[in-house]
Structures are given as structure tokens and as C-alpha cells.
Design a protein that fits this description.
The protein is mostly helical. Helix content is 70%, strand content 3%. A two-stranded antiparallel ribbon has the order 1-2. It comes from Aliidiomarina sanyensis.
């Protein structure tokens, strides 16, 4: 299939596929009659990348997972997954903290009418 058909089948943009080529996440197929023709294996690899991104893995981590798949090193893959879980937990904690702070600012804004806006004041440097 052509790059356009592959992109449509997997639900990514053509430029995304080209980017994955440059990042060595996806092999560039050989040229046939002047066109690069992609296989079902390319589609499976792209679907793997998309699913891993949905799970929170970075492209660098996905590259490592793909290498581990070739060696069948389940222990290293599990280590990578556990490290990603810890990073996601930290992000969630940070987002919850930001949410709480913003929720308090919104509450303060609602109850301090006629005074300087606490939301804007919170983001002004030096205040």
C-alpha cells in the first residue's frame, strides 16, 4: 500500500510516518516502480507505536520496547513499564496539585468581587 493508504488505515498523518522513519521507528520500504509500498507489518508497527503512546510511553521508550521485542527480554520491558508508571504517577500528582491551586483561585475570584482578581494576581511576576 502507498504511504497515504497506510496513514489512512492506521489513522496517522503522512508526515507522522515520515517522522517515524527519521526516528528509526519505522523501516523505509524498498521502492517498487518508483513508489514505496508498505506492508501489513508496517501497519502493525504503526499501531504498536500508537498504542504505546496512548499508554504514555515516549518515542524513545517505544524504540527501546521495539528493541526488547526482538530479544524477547520481558524483564527489561517490565522495568520500562514500571518506570513509565512511576513517571505517570508523578504527572498525575502534579496535575492534581495544579487543579487544586486553580480551583482555589477560581473560588477566591468568585468570592472577592470588587477587588483585584486573584487569578490574574497569582500569575503576575513579583506579586
Amino acid at each position: 500500500m502507498t504511504i497515504g493508504k497506510l496513514a489512512k488505515k492506521v489513522g496517522v498523518g503522512v508526515e507522522t510516518i515520515r517522522y517515524y522513519h527519521r526516528q528509526n521507528l519505522l523501516e523505509i520500504p524498498s521502492t517498487t516502480s518508483g513508489f514505496r509500498l508498505y506492508s501489513e507489518e508496517h501497519a502493525r508497527r504503526l499501531q504498536f507505536i500508537k498504542r504505546a503512546q496512548t499508554a504514555g510511553f515516549t518515542l524513545q521508550e517505544i524504540s527501546r520496547l521495539l528493541q526488547l521485542d526482538a530479544t524477547r527480554d520481558h524483564a527489561k520491558a517490565q522495568e520500562l513499564a514500571i518506570a513509565r508508571l512511576h513517571a505517570l504517577d508523578e504527572q498525575i500528582e502534579s496535575l492534581q496539585s495544579a487543579r487544586s491551586a486553580l480551583q482555589k483561585l477560581a473560588h477566591d475570584c468568585e468570592h472577592n468581587r470588587g477587588q483585584p482578581c486573584p487569578i490574574i494576581a497569582a500569575f503576575v511576576p513579583g506579586e
